[in-house]
């Protein structure tokens, strides 16, 4: 065996048992070339061919830790214990596997590993078939130059990195498209008939600290008689399942409103849908539902486990809470009831989800809270609706930024109108 300075020594095990550890190079000894793999696994049963690979590695300039497995079974054991190496050199004739079977079995065990197959001079077609089956390259034993060896290993590792990056980008793009479709379903265009009479400002900010889509939703519908219906809801949890439930409930809510379903009955039907669609009884939904008759002198509010709402009158802002029933899905069959509130002339109402005030704003578990949100709203009371909504969200995000940021989605709906003559 030839051991050259700069190349790790490789010794064959005396028995098929556990392989002997090999010398490991430190970071200072590694090549500076970006694509150099740090570890190589040679799967080869011929000790003579192992020596040839060892010499090629020594002369190639690759500074990699080389380990050896006699059989495909030993290679699989190493992969399970040590993880995926920078590159695998695979002989196509092993005691327990041969040809393309060896390639496919190894890829099934380590799908993220770049593979360079080793073939004989008369088996070049087998090397090409192996590349078609998923290997990155092939080398012919005894006919491989040092430069070709180094390039094959480096290019195999680099091509696999490109494949992984491309796959990750594709998955990310598909997920972004799915999230965009779900968000469009959660956040519709308000269906308002009295153009110029009703002012709706809606805003949504996704909580991306966990890069997961949430289930916040809202909608506003004006029916043919001039009654305005508005809802803001929040599905517990984050992810596509919760978002899909939010879309389902939002579409169902609009359909039931247009069908003329009274509010208490409508909420009960939404709960039935939630119970039927959810994957676990831990999934529940909070929501606030407003019904504002055409004269705009009063509003009926129905809350299911949801925070209160803001009432703006001139430069004054109040938090309106009143009675609230449980969230949907917690007590199936609960009979929710709406409360009436008088609306002063020129008043407007603001619905929101709890992401607006639940961000951490201090050490430990200190939150902005509803009182803190009300204080912020009063500071912004003189602003126009759009600036008021943006200011609420911006201030909440700024307060939470030093402590990890807003981790939940935020939905806000501002409703204003001109008083009926």
What does this structure look like?
The chain is of the alpha+beta class. About 35% of the residues lie in helices and about 25% in strands. It has nine helices and 17 strands. Strand 13 (about 310-315) and strand 14 (about 315-320) form a beta hairpin. Helix 2 (about 70-80) packs parallel to helix 3 (about 100-110) and helix 6 packs antiparallel against helix 7 (about 265-275). The chain is elongated and about 95 Å long.
Features:
elongated, 5-stranded antiparallel sheet, alpha+beta, 421 residues, single chain, 9 helices, 5-stranded parallel sheet
Topology, pairings included?
Elements: E1 39-43, H1 47-60, E2 65-69, H2 72-82, E3 87-91, E4 93-94, E5 97-98, H3 100-109, E6 115-119, H4 124-133, E7 137-140, H5 146-186, E8 198-205, E9 214-222, E10 228-238, H6 240-258, H7 263-277, E11 285-292, E12 298-304, E13 309-313, E14 316-320, E15 339-342, E16 347-352, H8 369-379, H9 385-400, E17 410-417
Parallel strand pairs: 1-2, 1-3, 3-6, 6-7
Antiparallel strand pairs: 4-5, 8-17, 9-10, 10-11, 11-12, 12-15, 13-14, 13-16, 16-17
Helix pairs in contact: 1-5, 2-3, 5-6, 6-7
